[in-house]
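Protocol step 4 of 5: obtain the predicted structure for the target chain.
Materials: sequence only (see below). No template structures provided, no constraints applied. The aim of this step is simply to have a reference model before the mutagenesis design in step 5. Sequence pasted as it appears in the construct record:
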Amino acid sequence: MYDVIIIGCGVTGAATAYELARYKLRVAVLEAANDIAAGTTKANSAIIHAGYDPEPGTLMARLNVEGNRLTGEICEKLQVPFKRVGSLVVAFTPEQLPTLQTLYDRGCQNGVPGLRLLSGEEARALEPQLNEEVCGALLAPSAGVIDPWGFAIAMAETAVRGGVELHRSCPVTGITAVPGGFEIQTPEGKFAARFVLNAAGVDADRVHNLLEPTDWHTLPSRGEYYLLDKAEGSRVGHVVFQCPGPEGKGVLVAPTVHGNLICGPNAENVEDRRDLGNSAAGMADVRTKAARSVPGLDWRQNIRNFAGLRANTTRSDFIIEESKTYPGFIDLAGIKSPGLSSAPAIAKLAAAMLSDRGLVLEPDPDFVDSREHIVFKNLSAEQKNALIQKDPRYGRVVCRCETITEGEIVAALHSPIPPYSINGVKRRCNAGMGRCQGGFCGPRVQEIIARELGLDQADVLLDQAGTYILTEKTKMGGKADV
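Step 4 output (structure tokens):
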């Protein structure tokens, strides 16, 4: 029997596994998809929020600010790209200025450092390409931009190296209370644990309902985005928000940690929890709203559109609580924005709740809280030459847009959590993340995956189960098959 089973390995599940790996515990993570960080974690704004938006006294307020601080520490230890670029919330009319004051007051109550209210002129001095209509702004220097899937992968890899078991393609189909804990049914067999942490994202209510009915449920909201080429990456230096409204924080314009520009999201309630499509109306809405903040955006530089689902629920706050009927079953649910920012703090809260329930948290002296992650293009010329001498694969560039080498791809494929797909490689080392979006390097990455994992190329997926790239041969011996 495991001490703890975590259901779901998005950023919340990964952060919790990383936290529990510090202790002498038997921990397993059950992930329904064939890779981690495959849901909301891979499709969001990639922002670490400062913490001025949540209502004081809520879990979101408390955990956002603490998570922001912890994120910087973790990223430094695990070599995850993270930049504290700061954020601006802009007002376009005098009627919106009281909203900025409210956010400032909330932020001060929540303990957000360095907040300042700016005039329109001061805001444009920081961001010269802002709309001339901007008449005021709230500056939050502690906000940042991050690689969200890289963050989750780094924490999960560190947890796995520390002894946490990860089971992928392992959806939970049943949960039963048994003496001393819980039995979890999956297509891969049964798992037993003293404690269960439900971090299943948009499906957290469905997972809970396998044990008992919930008094809340998920209301998934789809947000659509533009990702613009690095030619637009310097358009703004801060994350630029508009004054929040009923739909949430609204459409943002922000630099990414990799040098691109991201614009979005809109907000649309959907019934299908797998609906990640883009719509003409949704994308037009994003363009219109983003252009109000920064009028000069060049939409011809768009290299990718995508959508993500927020795990909104019938409650306004995060749902981090133990079942009253089945002690030891704890929901980490409703982790909508600022969920990415809050994940490390959610993990520490979960560990404290387990301790309160009697789980002994004895530190593991052998836990290694660091990670080496080579990014070839960031090395000095001397370091590059030394690495190529040691492993010539680092001298072969596969992804020209991002200067990603065969050595980096091979390292990802032999990491503690190896990817099984082209997009899995993409999320680990950025191959295919550039302007051509894998149009040049995709086939070569596919060959490398097949070679390193001993697969037929036809078995290499683009991403999730069923996303085959090759299905059959169309030419043999120089003659077309009929």
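Step 4 remarks: The first strand starts at residue 2 and ends at 7. The chain is about 30% helix and 20% strand.
Proceed to step 5.
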